[in-house]
Amino acid sequence: AYKRFSELLPKEERNNACSARVPKSQILTLPELRANPFQHRICHVFSTSDDGDDSMSFEDFLDMLSVFSDSATSDIKSHYAFRIFDFDDDGTLDRKNLEQLVNCLTGQGEESRLSTAEMEQLIQNILEESDIDKDGTINLSEFQHVVSRSPDFASSFKIVL
Amino acid sequence: DGSDVDNEESSAAENDDNVKGTDKGGKKTTPRTRRGRGRGRGRHGGEEDEEDEDGTRRAGHRRNRNRRGRGRAAENEGNDSDGGAEKDRKNQTNQKSKEDDGDEEDEKGGRSGKGKNEKKQDKKPDKKGKKEKANKKKKDKKKSASGSDSDSEEEPITEEELAKLKEEVEEKKKLIATLRNKPWKMKKKLSVLKEAQLFVEKFEGALGKGKGKKFYAYKVMMTKKWMKFQRDFENFKTACIPWEMKIKEIESHFGSSVASYFIFLRWMYGINMILFGLTFGLVMVPEALMGKPYGSLPRKTVPRAEEATAMNFATLWDFSGFAQYSVLFYGYYNNQRTIGWLKFRMPLSYFLVGVGTIGYSFMIVIRTMAKNANDDGGGDDTSFNFSWKMFTSWDYLIGNPETADNKFASITTSFKEAIVEEQESRKEENIHLTRFLRVLANFLALCTLAGSGYLIFFVVRRSQKFALEGLENYGWWERNEVNMVMSLLGMFCPTLFDVISSLENYHPRIALRWQLGRIFALFLGNLYTFIIALMDEINLKARYLLPFTIFNMYLEEKIVKYNMTIWEASLYNGTIPENSTAPPIEVDPADVPRGPCWETMVGQEFVRLTVSDTMTTYITILIGDFLRAVFVRFFNYCWCWDLEYGFPSYSEFDISGNVLGLIFNQGMIWMGSFYAPCLPAINVFRLHTSMYLQCWAVMCCNVPQERVFKASRSNNFYMAMLLFILFLSTLPAVYTIVSIPPSFDCGPFSGKTRMFEVISETLEHDFPSWFGKVFGYASNPGLILPFILLMVLSIYYLNATSKSYKEANLELKKKLQSVRNR
Fold first, then answer.
1. Which of A49, A79, B4, B351 fits a disulfide with B183 by CB distance 3.0 to 4.6 angstroms?
2. Is B51:B94 a contact under the CB 8 Å cutoff?
């Protein structure tokens, strides 16, 4: 893992890779993240940089890998998944977040997007299913409750270096 | 230095009471040293002096560190002579270094009178994997033999303090163990880890005080060494997993469902390796090394008649000739009770290995099923359809843009479909037409199955006819007709089923289940028809003139024995002696007439079947995938319509077909390995090459599937099929072991009336007499029947409890539902 990380750094900084931070653009060149629609969110969630540029240090990198690995428990994965899906970082998934999520999932092209009516319907269904306290948003425990019943979650939420 | 230390100590002693529980100073982070590089993280304040832990120790002061909450470290410069004088610290750790280093930590409250622990701690750098290992503690504890140490300050620890201490230590240990699972940031985890580690370190020593300290310290050190060893071993094991990179590449191109096939293949490979190890190591090698060599016994020699062709490649490929009279097949083994100087009990070992392979396979399949069932989380739940689609449908392993596009498209489609389904209640128009079509489809499928069964039976009969008339008169096709027909059926019928299923108009997942079920029935039917025909053939070959019943084998035996005595007598140039008292004449084993050896024949059939199956698969891959891809790629320029989009286009990877093929292949191996110990070896070889060939074919000739669906739900389905096949495969072998007498002239059980008698023989001879008696009592029906009764009762009870749990679950779910809908 250290090797992969240091490859991302420009040559002159390689010796000091442990302390360096890799800018986001470099991280996104990793093949595992390249095709992922949530790449930006992932970088943002795992980055601990103070200046908000979403750069990642080696520790952040390790953090990310450990959460996505096979041995992480479903709890931890769902915790981080929630944070990744929470586009505005407010601790809940509200309608806007869900809409953004769906748009991410359906791809970049215009023709593959859902129409407004379909989107409405979809979000309505989702909220019906998962929102237990009927507040119009999904918070962490509701999310974890939904996702923990799914048999596919652990196997799909996985990145292997 | 010393005086400074003393100063620190005294001031620390005063500060003892101020010590707070949560913050602990400590040394440098172990992870840092573990990585072996100085990571100047902010919290360490960039002090590099403590790097010396890796190497030389300084005889100076250690740094103290204090941590309050996340990411903050206030480091205490050990070099300050006023070390310990930081007013904002609530905790002080004093460190002394004598020869090399010594650490002393004062403990927090409740220990005012406690003496200082003196330990020497060497934190050796760990080799760490990329995950944070929370349990890593490696140190040597030594008492620092220094005079100025306040050794003498030990004061008795009261019992309750000890108990409380123990509790806290346990708590910290638990924290360390579960640290990996907490969703905190790395920094926080590391800091908490350090804290907990230091705490435990300190007090483990305390606990051991006065109770054989040295031994305790030694024990602790050994535990740590053992943990380190375990971790290194885990790393090594992970690195050893074969084909990891290949599978990963496939995963990123095709998604997890195609990769699951290759993971299954790898798992099968593992099982076969173990089976191979068993049969090779315990059956083939002893016989080869210690048994009588080739040519010493009639059963071990190629008969004179066949000698001329015995070495031809064609004969060897057909597994007769030299291959037949070798350790590869049942017939070679001698029925001597022990062989060689090791007194290796060959027949016993053969029997036990046969039983053991089956037993091991059962165990491992059931274990995997149980594990999968756990992960599944209780079956099909459709209450969160949309949310799951939303949150879990993206496969994070995909690294290839083309696959990602496919995935996007499929997700979009599935959303739209689901919305539409949800919106309109399905109007059952033409329900009668649908039903009629489904019944028709099932009828057609049944016809196909019956047809294929009959075809196999017919072909096997024909091959018997050919055998009777002598195989030399016929070409290659006639000789291998059975195998070819079976393989071809296996190739074409599934496609037929696919076409039929389009009549049925089911939801894709249900259609897949029907498809798999039908293919399963097809293969099963084929296999069993084959076996039945084979049994018939055994009866047929055993005696050419008498009608077909198995019991006539007894007669056959008598006939051959009689023939042999006549033949022997002819050697004496005399009449048939009543009791042959004459010295045995030296006869070349090749000339002795042989009895029939149906076990070897069966083994040969299975081996031939496996080989031809393999060949067919490979050729199908080459033609069906590779040539097709080449054709489409190169002829696209000069063809009327777009080959890549229309027919035939590139082929997709057929997961279910391949998995089923694999499962049935394994079934054949299980069936045949008792009669041909070489089968697992052949299978290992086949799987190995299969892996490489299919990986290559997939990457180069296949395109990602259009409907990307999850493999996870089918996982247990495949396991269940494997279990079923295993059970069915063992039936014929068990039947033959228990009720058919072995051939009198070949194999390790020749001369016995039943194969399992080898067990009773062993009990008589090799075990002390009381053992035999005990066994006799244990196998008394009076004991076995109650045991069976007990097992039945416990199964019933467990079933009842699991049902009640399921119902309780359902109740809770309903409650949740009603709360939601309120």
1. A79
2. no
List of chain A residues whose C-beta atoms are within 8 Å of the C-beta of residue B411: 105-106
What is chain B's mean pLDDT, rounded? 68
- For A1-68, the fitting CATH number among 1.10.238.10, 3.30.420.10, 3.90.76.10, 1.10.760.10 is 1.10.238.10
Q: Which domain holds residue B170?
A: 159-237
Q: B742: Cβ–Cβ under 8 A, 6 or more apart, which residues?
A: B599, B749, B750, B752, B754, B755
Domain ranges of chain A: 1-68, 74-157
CB B147 within 8 A of CB B102: no
B785 and B697 in a common domain? no
B415/A150 touch (CB, cutoff 8 Å), yes or no: no
Residue B735 sits in the same domain as residue B769: no
pLDDT in the model for residue B479: 67
Is A74-157 assigned to CATH 1.10.238.10?
A: yes
The answer to whether residues B380 and B510 touch, using CB atoms and an 8 Å cutoff, is no
Segment B538-556 shows an average pLDDT of 50
CB contact under 8 A, B183 and A75: yes
User: Closest approach of chain B CAs to the CA of A33, in angstroms?
Assistant: 7
Q: For residues B95 and B64, is the Cβ–Cβ distance under 8 A?
A: yes
Contact B338, B785 (CB under 8 A): no
CB contact set of A153 (below 8 Å; sequence gap of 6+): A74, A77, A78, A81, A147, B388, B391, B392
B818 CB neighbour count, 10 Å cutoff:
9
DSSP string for residues in B91-146: ----EE-SSS-EE-----SS-TTPPPP-B----PPPP--SSPPTT-----------
The distance of A14 to chain B (nearest Cα, Å) reads 12
Checking if the pLDDT of B608 tops 80, the result is: yes
More confident residue, A139 or B151: A139
Q: Per the domain annotation, does B80 fall within a domain?
A: no
DSSP one-letter code for B102: E
The answer to whether B679 touches B620, Cβ cutoff 8 Å, is: no
Q: Which two tokens stand for residue B286?
A: 């002893």
Tell me the percentage of chain B whose pLDDT exceeds 90.
5
Crossing angle of the two packed helices B598-620 and B481-501, in degrees rounded to 10: 50
Q: Could you tell me if B233 and B266 lie in one domain?
A: no
**Any idea what the Cα angle at residue B670 is, between residues B482 and B487, rounded to 5°?**
25
Residue B671 corresponds to which amino acid? M
User: Does residue B423 belong to the interface with chain A, where contact is any CB pair within 8 Å?
Assistant: yes
- Location of structure tokens 């299969």: B690
The predicted pLDDT at position B244 comes to 77
3 state DSSP class of B611: helix
Highest mean pLDDT range out of B51-55, B611-615, B733-737? B611-615
Name the percent of chain A lying above pLDDT 70.
Answer: 75
- Token pair in block for residue B582: 């004459």
pLDDT in the model for residue B795: 95
Residue B537 has pLDDT above 70, yes or no: no
